[in-house]
Amino acid sequence: MTNMDLGMTERLKPIHEKVSRMVREEIMPLDEEFHAEVGKNGDRWSYTARQTEILEGLKAKARERGLWNFWLTDSERGYGLSTVEYAYLAEEMGKAHLGAETFNCSAPDTGNMEVIERYGTETHKKEWLAPLLEGKIRSAYLMTEPDVASSDATNISMSCVRDGDDYVLNGEKWWSSGAGDPRCKIYIVMVKTSSDAPKHQQHSMIFVPADTPGITKLRAMKVYGDDDAPHGHLHLKFEDVRVPADNLILGEGRGFEIAQGRLGPGRIHHCMRAIGQAEMALEQMCKRAMRREAFGKPLAQLGANYDIIAECRMEIEMARLLCLKAAWMMDQGDPRAAAPWISQIKVVAPRVALKVTDEAIQMFGGQGISQDTRLARSWTHLRTLRLADGPDAVHRRQVARVELKKYTQEKV
Amino acid sequence: MTNMDLGMTERLKPIHEKVSRMVREEIMPLDEEFHAEVGKNGDRWSYTARQTEILEGLKAKARERGLWNFWLTDSERGYGLSTVEYAYLAEEMGKAHLGAETFNCSAPDTGNMEVIERYGTETHKKEWLAPLLEGKIRSAYLMTEPDVASSDATNISMSCVRDGDDYVLNGEKWWSSGAGDPRCKIYIVMVKTSSDAPKHQQHSMIFVPADTPGITKLRAMKVYGDDDAPHGHLHLKFEDVRVPADNLILGEGRGFEIAQGRLGPGRIHHCMRAIGQAEMALEQMCKRAMRREAFGKPLAQLGANYDIIAECRMEIEMARLLCLKAAWMMDQGDPRAAAPWISQIKVVAPRVALKVTDEAIQMFGGQGISQDTRLARSWTHLRTLRLADGPDAVHRRQVARVELKKYTQEKV
Amino acid sequence: MTNMDLGMTERLKPIHEKVSRMVREEIMPLDEEFHAEVGKNGDRWSYTARQTEILEGLKAKARERGLWNFWLTDSERGYGLSTVEYAYLAEEMGKAHLGAETFNCSAPDTGNMEVIERYGTETHKKEWLAPLLEGKIRSAYLMTEPDVASSDATNISMSCVRDGDDYVLNGEKWWSSGAGDPRCKIYIVMVKTSSDAPKHQQHSMIFVPADTPGITKLRAMKVYGDDDAPHGHLHLKFEDVRVPADNLILGEGRGFEIAQGRLGPGRIHHCMRAIGQAEMALEQMCKRAMRREAFGKPLAQLGANYDIIAECRMEIEMARLLCLKAAWMMDQGDPRAAAPWISQIKVVAPRVALKVTDEAIQMFGGQGISQDTRLARSWTHLRTLRLADGPDAVHRRQVARVELKKYTQEKV
Amino acid sequence: MTNMDLGMTERLKPIHEKVSRMVREEIMPLDEEFHAEVGKNGDRWSYTARQTEILEGLKAKARERGLWNFWLTDSERGYGLSTVEYAYLAEEMGKAHLGAETFNCSAPDTGNMEVIERYGTETHKKEWLAPLLEGKIRSAYLMTEPDVASSDATNISMSCVRDGDDYVLNGEKWWSSGAGDPRCKIYIVMVKTSSDAPKHQQHSMIFVPADTPGITKLRAMKVYGDDDAPHGHLHLKFEDVRVPADNLILGEGRGFEIAQGRLGPGRIHHCMRAIGQAEMALEQMCKRAMRREAFGKPLAQLGANYDIIAECRMEIEMARLLCLKAAWMMDQGDPRAAAPWISQIKVVAPRVALKVTDEAIQMFGGQGISQDTRLARSWTHLRTLRLADGPDAVHRRQVARVELKKYTQEKV
Question: Full-prediction pTM beyond 0.90?
Answer without folding.
Answer: yes
